[in-house]
Design goal:
heterodimer, A: four-stranded antiparallel sheet, B: mainly beta, globular
Chain lengths: 114, 115
């Protein structure tokens, strides 16, 4: 199993550009989520999904869209990038949304918006 | 109020010293789970431990140990005889029904172990 994979590893964008951060998992996990990591703030939840076709907002959803057409994939879209979206983005998955479940994280995508 | 508080922003120790990373959490649930993750300089997040709210036994894994005290809502992490390879950011996290079973992180503690 590859676990949770993310692409790209690093990306530079200009303000106003759009892009999609890819996330995939091969563990047949129902629950997937996106976090952003900023210095001194830990990881904050952007969006999450409890299964194909179902998504919901987390703590900091503004400026981001998600969709979940398959169990495996959970892409994160930036429609119009802003410098405030410069961050490290992590995708995570767990078998279910239950609190007992451990979330496993992808390697992260470092995004710089100029 | 912070749901998970890691009051130590940064700790520096010399190799072979013991070090404790503090974690204090808030939840009204009686059933919840606490986690520790390690983020080494390479950037990935590595799962270290999960503890449920009904198990207050301390846990030891090699040089790592965890002290869970419900009375003080704390889940502290101790590294014994620290090594340079322990240098990382350590995150404590909480998952409970109160927060929709979403993983809630503390701000993290940067641990620097000097040789």
């Amino acid at each position: 199993n590859a676990g949770v994979t993310q692409t790209p590893k690093f990306q530079v964008l200009k303000t106003g550009q759009s892009m999609t951060l890819q996330c995939a998992q091969d563990m047949n996990h129902e629950y997937m989520s996106w976090y952003r990591q900023d210095p001194g703030m830990g990881l904050r939840l952007i969006h999450y999904s409890v299964g194909a076709g179902i998504t919901d907002q987390g703590e900091v959803p503004n400026g981001y869209n998600v969709s979940r057409s398959t169990t495996e994939d959970f892409p994160l879209r930036l429609l119009s990038a802003a410098p405030s979206q410069t961050s490290v983005y992590f995708c995570a998955s767990s078998p279910l949304q239950s609190s007992i479940q451990t979330q496993y994280f992808g390697p992260g995508t470092r995004l710089l918006v100029l | 109020a912070q749901k998970v508080t890691q009051a130590q922003t940064e700790i520096s120790v010399v190799e072979k010293e013991d070090v404790t990373l503090d974690c204090v959490y808030e939840t009204r649930d009686t059933t919840y789970y606490l986690f520790w993750y390690k983020q080494p300089p390479s950037g990935e997040l590595v799962f270290l431990i999960r503890r449920n709210s009904f198990d207050e036994q301390n846990e030891i894994s090699g040089r790592y140990s965890w002290n869970f005290q419900k009375s003080t809502s704390s889940f502290n992490f101790t590294i014994t005889a620290s090594q340079v390879v322990d240098s990382a950011v350590y995150f404590c996290a909480l998952r409970s029904m109160e927060y929709g079973n979403k993983l809630v992180f503390g701000a993290g503690t940067i641990l620097r172990v000097k040789s």
